[in-house]
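TASK: fixed-backbone design
INPUT:
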């Protein structure tokens, strides 16, 4: 295994090397192409100049004298070309690299040697006098275009500069990649340390990591949020242990003391005492049933018997069943239900939602209070509200109210009963129906639970 820092450094160096090599190759190709093109154009200009000179010299008297041939020899040397002059019978009378014949005019001293060199490429131009061809001029250039020392020195210098650039690029790649890799991997190492702390349960040691890389910043924030939620869940689990142990310890202690007293004959088994014992058993049974129900609705095996449901009809039936209970506390219950509101849902589970919310409202509404249940249709949404004038919820507790086993006020929860499971069940069942549940509350003024479902025709 190789560390991320070393891998980044290695990859950066390789990329830099490849980039520089590609630049060198392309530049050399470009220089060679344009330089050769330049040389060829220059050769054409030189050739044209020589041809023009020969034509102008012939026009005077139809011949080239020794002075003019000497000039051609000098031009051939300066322009680095080979000039071969032939008479009209294609006999060689002048070669710039060998010299010229004696005497005046063309046709003197025929040269019988082969005038053409293998490493040259020749072009031929006819020379005319009074519209008659009197000679042929062959201009030879090296087949290798770049032959001049200055040209080769220029290309050599360019390649030396590229080699120096190559070395500098490698050094910079090593330095910069090392710096950048450390800068990039530092937050990754910190994120890795955070995940280790989370795995060990050290949630408070997970710190916010600062980085200017968007993806790493988002990942760090997500891990920080994960640590916060896991810490809250850990606290909730601890509270659950305390709540369940308390909920079970108290009724078990009562049951044990009462039964021991009955067995010892200290107390007589009267109907009142047996009823109290039964109440404690019912209380424990309800807690166990709630825990079992929560595990069911949170599992992936929850099955809903979906059908077209008239919300008004089902909600009215649940409300009516609560009338005697509400009257026992002198709570005024009002319903405002629109008709013809249908959704796709499971009747039994919907009733369970309504029962839990009404039970919750009943528990936390004082005598003489008021509960209003409303149902209205807005666009393609069914909105159900449960509003009570109860004791309300603290603002800091609102974001946790649907979490499992959460109870905002310990002392109040002891009086009203329950282990903070009912609302968690409600949320999961609403979610299973593709609905949304929210809560608005103010301490001392009551709460409003709103459920939104998709309607159907």
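OUTPUT:
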């Amino acid at each position: 295994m190789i560390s991320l820092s070393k891998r980044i450094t290695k990859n950066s160096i390789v990329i830099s090397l490849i980039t520089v090599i590609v630049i060198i190759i392309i530049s050399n190709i470009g220089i060679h192409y344009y330089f050769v093109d330049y040389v060829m154009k220059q050769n054409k200009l030189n050739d044209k100049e020589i041809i023009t000179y020969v034509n102008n010299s012939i026009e005077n008297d139809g011949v080239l004298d020794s002075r003019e041939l000497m000039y051609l020899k000098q031009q051939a040397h300066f322009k680095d070309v080979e000039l071969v002059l032939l008479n009209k019978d294609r006999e060689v009378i002048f070669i710039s690299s060998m010299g010229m014949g004696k005497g005046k005019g063309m046709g003197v001293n025929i040269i019988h040697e082969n005038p053409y060199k293998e490493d040259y490429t020749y072009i031929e131009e006819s020379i005319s006098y009074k519209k008659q061809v009197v000679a042929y001029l062959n201009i030879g250039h090296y087949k290798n275009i770049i032959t001049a020392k200055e040209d080769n020195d220029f290309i050599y210098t360019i390649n030396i500069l590229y080699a120096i650039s190559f070395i500098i690029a490698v050094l910079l790649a090593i330095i910069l990649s090392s710096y950048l890799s450390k800068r990039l991997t530092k937050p990754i190492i910190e994120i890795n340390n955070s995940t280790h702390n989370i795995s060990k349960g050290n949630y408070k040691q997970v710190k916010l990591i600062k980085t200017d890389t968007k993806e790493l910043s988002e990942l760090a924030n997500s891990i920080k949020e994960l640590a916060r939620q896991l810490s809250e869940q850990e606290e909730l689990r601890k509270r659950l242990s305390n709540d369940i142990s308390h909920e079970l310890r108290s009724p078990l202690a009562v049951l044990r003391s009462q039964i021991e007293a009955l067995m010892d004959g200290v107390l007589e088994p009267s109907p009142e005492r047996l009823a109290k014992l039964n109440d404690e058993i019912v209380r424990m049974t309800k807690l166990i049933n709630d825990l079992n129900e929560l595990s069911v609705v949170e599992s992936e095996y929850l099955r809903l018997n979906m059908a077209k449901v008239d919300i008004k009809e089902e909600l009215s039936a649940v409300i009516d069943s609560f009338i005697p209970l509400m009257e026992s506390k002198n709570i005024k219950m009002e319903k405002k239900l629109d008709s013809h509101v249908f959704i796709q849902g499971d009747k039994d589970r919907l009733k369970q939602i309504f029962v839990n919310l009404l039970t919750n409202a009943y528990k936390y509404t004082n005598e003489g209070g008021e509960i209003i249940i409303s149902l209205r249709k807005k666009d393609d949404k069914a909105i159900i509200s449960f509003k009570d004038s109860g004791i309300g919820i603290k603002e800091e507790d609102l974001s946790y109210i649907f979490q499992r086993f959460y109870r905002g006020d310990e002392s109040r929860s002891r009086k009203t009963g329950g282990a903070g499971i009912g609302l968690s069940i409600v949320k999961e069942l609403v979610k299973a129906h593709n609905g949304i549940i929210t809560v608005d509350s103010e301490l001392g003024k009551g709460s409003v639970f709103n459920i939104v479902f998709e309607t159907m025709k």
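COMMENT: The domain at 4-149 is CATH 3.30.450 (Beta-Lactamase).
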